[in-house]
């Protein structure tokens, strides 16, 4: 097949021009791959609708109090214990209450909440909500902080969030984007975040008024009618004759000096720590000046599982000394070898091994129950199941042998008892045949009466009277008559 002349000319021209095109001096080197940090994509645990729903009851709290609630909610089990303590001590509040729980094994953020019994009364109404709130803050801190700002703007637009004698409400510009190494700008902004930031602070830095409000009306028209926000009525004892200001009710103020040591950092969507305040109230658990950013402490989680895989991976394996836990418990190679020998000895003796976990215990129980049926006996079982069956069969055999030994003995005892009862002179017969025996046998009663008269006459015989020196009196012989004359 011959190529067209035009195609041949085109190839020739390309080959002539190719050395110039392929020159290393003319062709620019490709840009190296940017050495940016690998960002792991993560699916949101909660949607924007769910976040707004759970944040609505606390989004209008002062920033410092909101920070304490968010930190403490990551320890839902300890929050429940603090709620119980606050109910038992309803008059304890402020810094004095925090000092009273200094010896409690709670996270400092949870201890700080006892200064506000009205807040714990609200959190105690729905423990599930508290756990979801903490899970959201651990998994999506940017979205949580953005959701708070979104709700605050809605309340402000509805005319229900403004400054008064209880709080100061200020609007700040959004933080400027941070410059990057390449000269550009980057910023982590939550979805649907407002362009400005609303900050809520107490009017008096040493007195905090906790607002109470109905989220269904305070934020204006709710954006998600199918998922209205929950409303937790305020405890009356903490809001007696409370003043209603722009949809918010303010009860008795709480005097604090060091209880609130956290604050919202809206620029970085995390929580700052006032180290001086923290150390003043937490004398037994001081921190350094460089520990001014809050970090979740997995040791205070008290076994509550984390909701998402990322949090489980991040916090579930960060307990102090987790890698050395077995050594701390005194577990070593020698003890492991001794355990193996003991287990082998138990297997040789036919003794069932103890379960090493709850799952194995449940499995052994199910297998033992299944082994009692004929159908399951035909199925293959492991060594533990066979050992369990042998032990059960041995118990059944021993019980039958004992029963066989006891039954003849009991039968013999019963026959001997019946024979003794049938004899009139036996002790058993006398016990059985008592005063009621004559009722059933009148002739026997008559015989016993005759025997008694004979014994009495024998006691009055002459030999006995003569020996005693008494006069002998003989009874006259009875006169026997026959046919009307004497013989």
Automatic annotation (TrEMBL):
Keyword Hydrolase belongs to the record = no
Q: Where is the composition biased (Low complexity)?
A: 359-370
Q: Spans of biased composition, class Basic and acidic residues?
A: 328-351, 379-394
Where does the signal sequence lie? 1-24
Give the matching InterPro entries.
DUF3300
Alphabetic keyword roster = Signal
Keyword Signal assigned: yes
* Amino acid composition bias (Polar residues), ranges on this chain: 312-326, 395-408, 443-463
Membrane-spanning intervals of the chain: none
Where are the residues of the annotated region Disordered? 286-487
Q: What is this protein called?
A: DUF3300 domain-containing protein
Species name for this entry?
A: Pseudomonas oryzicola
């Amino acid at each position: 097949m011959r190529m067209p002349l035009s195609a041949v000319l085109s190839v020739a021209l390309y080959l002539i021009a190719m050395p110039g095109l392929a020159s290393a001096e003319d062709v620019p080197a490709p840009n190296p791959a940017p050495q940016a940090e690998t960002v792991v994509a993560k699916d949101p645990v909660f949607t924007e609708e769910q976040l707004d729903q759970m944040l609505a009851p606390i989004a209008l709290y002062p920033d410092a109090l909101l920070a304490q609630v968010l930190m403490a909610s990551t320890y839902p089990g300890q929050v429940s214990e603090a709620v119980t303590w606050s109910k038992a001590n309803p008059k304890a509040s402020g810094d004095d209450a925090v000092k009273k729980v200094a010896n409690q094994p709670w996270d400092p953020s949870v201890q700080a909440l006892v200064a506000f019994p009205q807040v714990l009364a609200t959190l105690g109404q729905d423990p599930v909500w508290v756990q979801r709130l903490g899970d959201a803050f651990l998994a999506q801190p940017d979205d949580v902080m953005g959701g708070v700002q979104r709700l605050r703007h809605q309340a402000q637009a509805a005319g229900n969030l403004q400054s008064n004698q209880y709080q100061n409400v200020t609007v700040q510009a959004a933080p400027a984007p941070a410059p990057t190494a390449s000269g550009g700008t980057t910023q982590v902004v939550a979805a649907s975040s407002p362009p400005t930031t609303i900050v809520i602070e107490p009017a008096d830095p040493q007195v905090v008024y906790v607002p109470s409000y109905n989220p269904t009306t305070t934020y204006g028209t709710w954006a998600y009618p199918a998922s209205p926000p929950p409303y937790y009525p305020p405890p009356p004892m903490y809001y007696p004759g409370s003043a209603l200001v722009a949809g918010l009710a303010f009860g008795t103020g709480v005097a604090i000096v060091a209880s609130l040591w956290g604050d919202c950092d809206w620029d970085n969507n995390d929580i700052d720590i006032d180290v001086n305040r923290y150390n003043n109230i937490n004398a037994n658990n001081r921190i350094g000046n460089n520990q001014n950013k809050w970090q979740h402490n997995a040791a205070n989680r008290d076994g509550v599982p984390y909701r998402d895989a990322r949090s489980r991976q991040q916090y579930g394996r960060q307990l102090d000394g987790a890698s050395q836990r077995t050594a701390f418990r005194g577990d070593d190679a020698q003890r492991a070898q001794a355990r193996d020998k003991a287990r082998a000895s138990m297997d040789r003796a036919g003794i069932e091994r103890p379960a090493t976990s709850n799952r194995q215990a449940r499995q052994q129980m199910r297998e033992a129950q299944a082994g009692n049926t004929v159908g399951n006996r035909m199925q293959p079982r492991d060594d533990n199941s066979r050992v369990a069956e042998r032990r059960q069969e041995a118990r059944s055999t021993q019980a039958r042998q004992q029963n066989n030994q006891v039954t003849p003995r009991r039968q013999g005892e019963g026959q001997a008892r019946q024979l003794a009862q049938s004899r009139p002179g036996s002790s058993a017969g006398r016990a059985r045949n008592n005063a009621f025996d004559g009722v059933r046998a009148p002739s026997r009663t008559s015989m016993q009466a005759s025997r008694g008269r004979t014994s009495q006459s024998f006691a009055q015989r002459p030999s006995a009277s003569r020996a005693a020196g008494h006069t002998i009196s003989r009874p006259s012989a009875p006169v026997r008559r026959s046919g009307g004359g004497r013989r």
